[in-house]
Design a protein that fits this description.
By secondary structure, the protein is mainly beta. 3% of the residues lie in helices and 37% in strands.
C-alpha cells in the first residue's frame, strides 16, 4: 500500500488515483486531503507509475466549469514490486558410501523467470527479471540440515543464515541400512521478502558385506556341503571367483559364477593338500560391495 498527502491546497475536493496497472480509484473528501493510506493489490511484480490527481472542485473533473482557487494538480510516484523469490527444484541425490557429492552454489538455484507487469499491454507476462533488473531476485539464503549423519560438513538442526553454498563432501554410511539427510533452502530478496523453502534429500546406501566367511576342508571323494553366502543387508546378489589354486584339480567345474558356490565331489589325487582361494563379492540393488575371501 502507498499514499500521497495533500499539503498545497486546502480546498481540494476530488481525488483520482491511477495505480499504473489500468485500475483507478476516485475519492471525494472535503477535508482537504485524501485518505492517508490507499491499499491496492497488484496481480504481479513489476514497475508501476502511480499518479494521484487532485481537483479543487468535483465539477472540474467533469469538465463543466473551472475549478476553484488551486485548479488541479497531480503527483507521480514510481513503485517497484519485486517478485517473491523462487528456487529451482533439486532432485533427491541417491549414492553409495564413499561417493563424492559436489558443492551446490545457492545463487545458481535462483529462478529468473517470473510474472512481470508489461506496461504496453497492461498485462502480466513471463519475463526474465534477472536480465531486466541486472541482478538476481534471490539475494540471501538460509539453510537447515536434518536427518542422519552422512558426512555433511554442516551442523544439523540449526539454521545457517546467508549461506552461499552447500560444501562438497564424501558420503559416509557404515550402518546396514540407508541413511538420509534433508537440506532445506529458504530464499530472500533484497527487500526481505521470504520465498518458499526448497528441500531435497541425500540418501546414502550401505555397501553389502559378506558375513561369516568360512574355510572348508574335505577328503578325496567326499561330497562338499558348502553353506550359502550371507551378507549384512537383504537383497544382495553374490559373485564368486577363484583367485588362487588349481580349481579343476579339486573337482570344481567352473572358476567363477553367481549366486552360492555349487557343491561338488572333492578330488585330490596328489600326496599334498590342494588349497583353492575363492573371492566373493555381494552387490545390493544400489551399490557394489567389497570383496571377501
Amino acid at each position: 500500500s502507498f499514499g500521497f498527502i495533500n499539503q498545497q491546497c486546502k480546498e481540494v475536493e476530488y481525488y483520482k488515483w491511477d495505480f499504473g496497472d489500468g485500475q483507478f480509484l476516485k475519492q471525494i473528501d472535503t477535508k482537504g486531503s485524501p485518505k492517508k493510506t490507499i491499499e491496492h493489490t497488484y496481480d504481479c511484480a513489476g514497475i508501476y507509475n502511480t499518479k494521484l490527481y487532485g481537483y479543487s472542485s468535483y465539477d472540474n473533473v467533469q469538465g463543466e466549469k473551472e475549478g476553484k482557487e488551486c485548479g488541479s494538480d497531480s503527483l507521480t510516484k514510481q513503485i517497484t514490486i519485486l517478485p517473491v523469490p523462487e528456487l529451482k527444484e533439486l532432485d533427491d541425490i541417491k549414492v553409495c558410501k564413499n561417493t563424492k557429492i559436489d558443492k551446490v552454489v545457492l545463487a545458481d538455484l535462483d529462478v529468473c523467470e517470473y510474472d512481470w507487469f508489461d506496461s504496453e499491454s497492461m498485462t502480466c507476462k513471463k519475463t526474465d527479471v534477472c536480465a531486466l533488473l541486472g541482478k538476481k531476485v534471490a539475494h540471501k539464503f538460509d539453510v537447515t540440515v536434518t536427518g542422519d549423519d552422512i558426512g555433511l560438513q554442516l551442523t544439523y538442526g540449526i539454521t545457517y543464515e546467508n549461506l552461499t553454498e552447500i560444501p562438497e563432501f564424501t558420503a559416509v554410511n557404515e550402518d546396514n541400512v540407508e541413511k538420509r539427510a534433508r537440506i532445506c533452502i529458504t530464499p530472500y530478496n533484497e527487500d526481505g521478502c521470504i520465498g518458499q523453502p526448497m528441500c531435497y534429500d541425500i540418501i546414502v546406501y550401505p555397501s553389502a558385506k559378506i558375513t561369516d566367511p568360512q574355510d572348508y576342508k574335505y577328503c578325496h571323494d567326499n561330497k562338499t556341503n558348502i553353506a550359502g553366502f550371507k551378507a549384512n543387508i537383504t537383497g544382495v546378489t553374490f559373485e564368486w571367483e577363484v583367485k588362487d589354486g588349481d580349481w579343476a584339480a579339486i573337482g570344481m567345474t567352473s572358476n567363477s559364477g553367481t549366486g552360492n558356490l555349487p557343491n561338488f565331489t572333492a578330488k585330490n589325487t596328489t600326496k599334498a593338500p590342494i588349497i583353492v582361494t575363492i573371492s566373493v563379492r555381494g552387490n545390493s540393488v544400489n551399490c557394489e560391495g567389497d570383496d571377501s575371501e
